[in-house]
Amino acid sequence: MIYSILGVLLFSFNNVLWKKNLKTSNVFFLVTYRAFFTSSFAFLIILFFYKIQHFNNSDILKITLGSSLGVLGLFCMLHVLKKESLQWIGIYNLIGVVFTSLYLWIFEKINLPDTIIGISIIIIGFIFFIVSNINGKMSITLKQHMLLLLMILCFSLSSIIHWKNLTNQIAPVFIIANQELLVFTIGLIFTFTKYKNSEIIKSIKSQFYTVVMMSIVILAAIYVPF
Q1: Residue 220: exposed, middle, or buried by beta-carbon count in 10 A (0-12, 13-18, 19+)?
Q2: Closest-CA residue to 152 (of 105, 102, 85, 92)
Q3: CA-CA distance, 102 to 109, in Å (whole number)?
Q4: Nearest to 70 by CA among 151, 137, 10, 133
Q5: Per-residue confidence of the chain (226 residues) as pLDDT tens digits?
Q6: Largest CB tally within 10 Å, which of 104, 166, 198, 222?
Q7: Predicted TM-score (pTM) of this structure
């Protein structure tokens, strides 16, 4: 329980760092820069502290599928977070609880009535928040709502798939390395196609310490609950 709470706090702090640093940077560059460090750190941990596991094709497919969904969710989140309040991320994260609970009820035979009250409160609160902010200062566009909905759906599915991977005795650091390498590869492609080399070099120098701290925080957030 303590590790789970610590993980939640670190993820929340990670989102605050995203929001703060996106004000002075573009999404693709910041994602790529951070993923360079997180993937490097993960592979170094594997090199020095783990024996290399041999994965079959099914394991590789499942890990990559979970990672791909996580990457898509991340880009959806950051494109909204760059312009809108961090509070929207928290509100939509609550919907992830509903998605996960429904999955557990349908596929894992968890008794839904035990959690139906909590799910009902979340859904009612979510609807009330959306309706009350339609014309308020925190209102967002329909496109942004769709991005957030896609975000939380991707994050929920990714978490479920990786949970299954962990139950198959796949060490979490291999999942982390896979996902962060995928983030880095996709982000790098978009970064070099959209921005000039001089802009990239300047940003690398000015944001070095900030991005290293972000990398350490997210690695801790992912690894601690495991």
Answers
A1: middle
A2: 92
A3: 10
A4: 151
A5: 676 778 788 888 999 999 999 988 888 999 999 999 999 999 999 999 888 778 889 999 999 999 999 999 999 999 999 999 899 998 999 899 889 888 888 887 777 676 788 888 889 999 999 988 888 888 899 999 999 999 999 999 999 999 999 888 888 889 999 999 999 999 999 888 877 777 788 888 889 999 999 999 988 887 775 5
A6: 222
A7: 0.89
Q: Which residue from 221, 226, 219 is spatially nearest to 44, judged by alpha carbons?
A: 219
CA 207, 226, 179 angle in degrees (round to 5)?
A: 50
Rounded to a whole number, what is the largest CA-CA distance in the chain? 58
Q: Give the span between the Cα atoms of 16 and 4, in whole angstroms.
A: 19
Task: Reduce the DSSP state of residue 153 to 3 states and report it.
Answer: helix
CA distance 131 to 104: 29
End-to-end CA distance of the chain: 11
Beta strands, E only, the chain? none
CB contact at 8 A, 207 and 21: yes
Listing DSSP states for 25-69 in one string gives S-HHHHHHHHHHHHHHHHHHHHHHH-PPPPPPHHHHHHHHHHHHH
CA separation (Å) from 121 to 105, 152, 167? 18, 18, 31
Structure tokens at 47: 């090199």
Q: Nearest to residue 149, comparing CAs of 162, 130, 166? A: 130
